[in-house]
Amino acid sequence: MPLPVNISQLLTGKTVEWERLEFKEGWNPERVLHSICAFANDTNNWGGGYLVIGIRARDGQPILPPKGLKANQLDSISRNYSKSVTS
Fold it and tell me: What's the Cα-to-Cα distance from 53 to each of 18, 43, 50, rounded to whole Å?
């Protein structure tokens, strides 16, 4: 069952990380891919999860303002990730 998600509520509400939601401060391929794999394994059959990149977290709660990713990083991340998936 998918989570109904409203990004504003996700970031400004009382939402905390749990088995279906994880915040990552930046692009760390190993950590991000570990989270993706964990969501894909879905041992509780919840239908995956949400991974929000560019948001720091403390005690599972998002820290605002979002850190985000720099625009000049996006092409490199996309290119490098695409190569690793197709190899």
Answer: 15, 23, 10
Structure tokens belonging to residue 74: 């996006």
Tell me the two tokens of residue 10: 């996700």
Pairing, β 50-53 against β 56-58: unpaired
What is the rounded distance in angstroms from the CA atom of residue 23 to the CA atom of residue 27? 11
Q: Which two tokens stand for residue 73?
A: 């990083």
| Across 57-81, average pLDDT | 83
φ/ψ of 51, rounded to 5, equals -115, 115
Confidence grade of residue 69 (pLDDT, cut at 50, 70, 90) = confident
Long-range contacts of 80-84 (CB under 8 A, 24+ apart): 80/29, 81/29, 84/29
Q: Can you state the angle between helices 29-41 and 71-86, rounded to 10 degrees?
A: 60
pLDDT at 23 over 60: yes
